[in-house]
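Async update (no meeting this week)

Hi team, since we skipped the sync, here's where things stand on the single-chain job. The sequence we agreed to prioritize is pasted below, unchanged from the tracker. I ran it this morning and attached the output directly underneath so nobody has to dig for it. Comments welcome in thread, and please keep replies under the output.
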Amino acid sequence: MGDTEEVEVKRAELKNKIFLRALKLEVEGDELLEIIEDIHPPPNLEGLDFKGPRLPKWCTTLTQLRKLEFYGPSHRRYDFSCSCLPPLGKLPFLEELLIWRVETLNHVGHEFLGMMNDQTSIAPLTIFPKLKSLEFWYC
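Output:
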């Protein structure tokens, strides 16, 4: 990715697009994935359609997200591959979650639910409180 494209991505200032409700991003290349980590969409985003080697870290901060579609890359030549999923169980309004063709996904564990490995509390834990549809395809 060239400097011009990087400047364009940053200049978009997505975090300031308060009326943006849905976003579709396609990442081809490790360099672009690093830049995508810095864009931070607005917190009121309701739909995210993402294609790339792994979900950006900021996706777990989108507390109004209702629909998330994550498509793995069309090839495996990335340094940043997705071996496990981020804590999407903490997204309070998520209704639809589709994980498609993430061939590097090794397991779906407690971190996906938003639980810590050493969590010993017996307090009730609410995960995916609004989830209606969860699909894994070709993973």
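Quick observations from my side:
Residues 7 and 35 are 10 Å apart (CA to CA).
The chain has a mean pLDDT of 82.
Reply here if anything looks off.
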